[in-house]
Design brief:
about 260 residues; alpha/beta; Ubiquitin-like (UB roll); 5-stranded mixed beta sheet; 4-stranded parallel beta sheet; 7 helices
Length: about 260
């Protein structure tokens, strides 16, 4: 047996058992598995840690553990401040955030999908989709897989993935915007919340008879989805999303447009 001592940053303790969440804990493993296998064996998917120190040395996921190893695991959120002073180069385990953030969400995150689309992000979502399909689309199209299913994130083909901690959709949105530094990339009312298609302005005369008469009278500006033909106007949802956008921009100290 190989005896290891592990410690996880607070943000990663979400995945551990209650007994493992406070300080360090010991773990016996068979042989010399990779550090990636060790981390996932205690419940932490490989998409979450960004830096792992073994005996104060930064290692890649391919490192094979040895008896007596002291292991510290840090997430992307921790940044590099806890790692200052290390003499060896840092092995970052997660790829840089995609330049153009696109997403695919599991079946439990429908409201979050709608919010992301409202803010202009290319977001795939269906109310039923097999986990294999989600993982392969994420891998093949380099989409960030957002989920609350830890097992889905442990699939080896998933490169970009994130376990959404919050349970309330509006809080989930803020969490994702913060995690991927997206505040400067918001483009509200660019996409259809129903199908993810792009919206385009249409003359008021072009939608005559397609919206209720009171709506046609009250509003002058309309948009139509190029894909599903859904029509949008600046109703109460517009004011809500404007307020949300301003809040997200203020949080990240990005000047509002």
């Amino acid at each position: 047996m190989t005896l290891l001592t592990l410690a996880f940053e607070d943000d990663l303790c979400t995945f551990l058992t209650p007994a493992q969440r406070h300080g360090t804990f010991e773990l016996n493993v068979d042989g010399s598995p990779s550090i990636k296998d060790v981390v996932e064996s205690v419940g932490v998917p490989h998409t979450e840690p960004d830096t792992i120190l073994v005996n104060q040395v930064s290692v890649p996921y391919s490192y094979l553990v040895r008896d007596g190893d002291q292991i510290q695991v840090y997430s992307v959120r921790s940044g590099t401040s806890p790692l200052l002073g290390l003499e060896n180069p840092l092995h970052h385990l997660q790829p840089p955030n995609p330049t153009d953030a696109t997403f695919i969400l599991d079946v439990h995150l429908g409201r979050l999908a709608a919010y992301l689309r409202m803010l202009g992000f290319d977001t795939l979502y269906q109310n039923y989709c097999d986990d294999d399909v989600l993982a392969h689309i994420s891998s093949n199209e380099r989409r960030i897989l957002l989920t609350r299913d830890v097992g889905l994130l442990k699939r080896s083909i998933v490169i970009y993935g994130y376990f959404v901690r919050q349970t309330i959709p509006i809080d989930q949105l803020e969490e994702v915007i913060y995690r991927y530094d997206l505040s400067s990339k918001l483009e509200p009312f660019k996409r259809c919340i129903r199908c993810n298609g792009l919206l385009e302005l249409v003359p008021k005369a072009a939608i005559a008879g397609e919206v209720p008469e009171n709506i046609a009278t009250a509003y002058e500006t309309f948009q139509r989805c190029r894909s599903c033909r859904q029509i949008y106007w600046k109703g109460t949802h517009f004011q809500r999303m404007q307020s949300l956008t301003e809040r997200l921009l203020a949080r990240s100290r990005v000047p509002a447009p």
